[in-house]
Write a structure and sequence with these properties.
Layout lengths: L1 H18 L4 H9 L3 H21 L11 H11 L1 H21 L9 H54 L10 E8 L7 E9 L2 E9 L3 H17 L8 H15 L6 E9 L4 E7 L5 E3 L12 E3 L3 E2 L13 E4 L5 E5 L1 H4 L11 H9 L6 H16 L8 E8 L3
Parallel strand pairs: 5-8
Antiparallel strand pairs: 1-11, 2-3, 3-4, 4-5, 5-9, 6-7, 6-10, 10-11
Helix pairs in contact: 3-4, 4-5, 4-6, 5-6, 6-7
Length: about 400
């Protein structure tokens, strides 16, 4: 008995301390975690107090409603059987009191009718409480699963953010800016800057088919494949993308693929060696003096082949593009040009070109920010349906 009293006292203190600041659902959950001995003793105390009040107070005053408290408590915290035990105990108390006063009734069946009516009401309430308890338990379970899934998404989002570059590369004569925004907690877009040596770096912009967690996992796999393939370090960009395609094809299901633009930028001879595997063609804005390329023209970098992972053993062709002072390269995923405003109009490539042409005197980061700001203003409050990735590179004069 001493050990039970100590355990009960400790439970009461814990319950009183934890009650403060709780919502009703949290309070119910807190009570359900208490030791069963504590719950049983609390129920017996409630019932004894109710029965004592019913016996002590004038018989003409019905305290039937008070019996709902221990009955509800028993059904909710101790189980449906305890609820019916409370009904039976209540019926016994009422029977004793009504049969003691049976001589005052005009008909001998009245005590039985009173007790039976009250018992039926209590038993219906117990059944309803049992149904409510099961429904709330399902809700608690769903809430726990939802919070667990949300936590997993937050971890996945943190991992993905760490996979993507957070700073622009530092290369002589090149200026970079980038912008990334996922449609959900995590996304399938991918961009990367891969330094090879002080004069060369790899530039990747990709979009994995689909959305959400599955696409983000494939994006992480794609990043690993891009960074571990050695063909690109030997200068063979077309072979690099072909090997990337075969590896990604083996890794994914038949309906999954990725579009990717990959380029090697060489500062020493000012060239861009690229392959476009199904990605939106990056735009190269000619802004410098060149005998071969007129200032103010825009080139679309389309040479390449099919998206990686779509077909096995696909072949790709690469292209070398010369770079000149002031030239601006804008690489992006389809989330940029396919973004829609409240009137369901697409942002479009033409609008993107106009924004960049009016911003060629700015730095790469400023051009990127201007595009992102105009895009956000265009979309306004419309829901985002796709990830948005934007990379801007500008050739600085010597």
């Amino acid at each position: 008995m001493i050990s039970i009293s100590k355990g009960t006292g400790t439970s009461v203190k814990q319950f009183a301390h934890g009650w403060r600041g709780m919502s009703l659902l949290d309070a119910l959950r807190h009570l359900q975690r208490q030791p069963r001995a504590f719950l049983v003793l609390e129920f017996l105390g409630m019932f004894a107090l109710t029965a004592g009040l019913d016996h002590a107070i004038d018989r003409d005053l019905s305290l039937f409603a008070l019996y709902l408290i221990p009955t509800f408590y028993a059904a909710w915290f101790l189980g449906i059987r305890w609820g019916y035990v409370s009904c039976l105990a209540s019926g016994i108390v009422w029977a004793i009191e009504d049969w003691a006063d049976a001589v005052f009734y005009h008909y001998p069946l009245i005590p039985y009718w009173n007790v039976g009516g009250k018992l039926i009401v209590l038993m219906v309430i117990v059944a309803m409480v049992g149904t409510m308890e099961r429904a709330l338990k399902d809700e608690f379970k769903y809430e726990i699963e939802r919070r667990s899934a949300q936590k997993e998404f937050e971890i996945a989002c943190e991992v993905q953010v760490r996979l993507l570059p957070s700073q622009a590369p530092d290369l002589p004569r090149l200026d970079f800016g980038f912008f990334y925004q996922s449609a959900r907690e995590v996304g399938g877009d991918y961009y990367d800057f891969i330094p090879f040596n002080p004069a060369q770096m790899g530039l990747a912009v990709a979009d994995v088919s689909g959305k959400g967690l599955s696409s983000s996992l494939l994006m992480a796999s794609l990043q690993g494949l891009v960074r571990t393939n050695l063909a690109v370090r030997q200068g063979d960009v077309a072979r690099f993308v072909a090997e990337l395609n075969d590896s990604f094809y083996k890794l994914t299901a038949n309906n999954r693929y990725a579009t990717i633009f990959f380029a090697v930028v060489d500062v020493s001879n000012q060239t861009l060696h690229y392959v476009n595997a199904g990605q939106n063609p990056p735009l190269l804005f000619r802004n410098g003096a060149s005998t071969a390329h007129l200032t103010g023209t825009t080139e679309r970098l389309e040479s390449g082949g099919l998206p990686v992972g779509l077909l096995a053993r696909s072949q790709y062709r690469s292209e070398h593009v010369p770079l000149h002072d002031g030239d601006v390269l804008v690489a992006y995923t389809d989330g940029v040009v396919e973004a829609r405003n409240p009137q369901q109009e697409e942002f479009g490539e033409a609008r993107l070109i106009n924004i960049v042409r009016s911003s060629l005197s700015l730095s790469a980061a400023e051009i990127c920010k201007r595009i992102a700001d105009r895009l956000q203003a265009f979309v306004a409050e419309s829901p985002r349906w796709d990830d948005i990735t934007l990379v801007v590179m500008k050739v600085k004069p010597e």
